Amino acid sequence: MRALVIDDSKVMRRIVAGILEDLGYEVRQAGHGREGLDVLDGGWVPELVCVDWNMPVMDGLQFVSAVRANPAWRQVTIMMVTSESEHGQIVRALAAGAHEYVIKPFTADAIRDKLALLGLLPEEVAR
């Protein structure tokens, strides 16, 4: 399974990517939403995208909207991984097309649990 991690923090990208790699994902990374779209435009379409909200160039909400506007990417599951914790922000992200929402700081188990809810744990991990 493939995952794309989009966050302007290199450290946060490494943390999320490490969790996903430990679960068996092949992971690519991007520093903002526009870079993430470039990855998708290049033909590497993952099952999962973990995207931060607050980033330069293109934020996470703009990224979600752009992905949902492209029929070729409708099957991509998007999980916001962000420090934005206000209820209104969560509602906006889900309304824009995100499937799940994880608030920073988080644990590896929190990510794993969200992936289990989404049916996105690789089979060998889910057992």
Automatic annotation (TrEMBL):
It holds the Pfam family Response_reg. The keyword Endoplasmic reticulum does not apply. It comes from the Bacteria. InterPro entries: Bact_response_regulator, CheY-like_superfamily, Sig_transdc_resp-reg_receiver. Transmembrane segments: none annotated. Keywords: Phosphoprotein. The modification 4-aspartylphosphate is found at D52. Residues 2-119 form the Response regulatory domain. This is Response regulator. It comes from Blastococcus deserti.
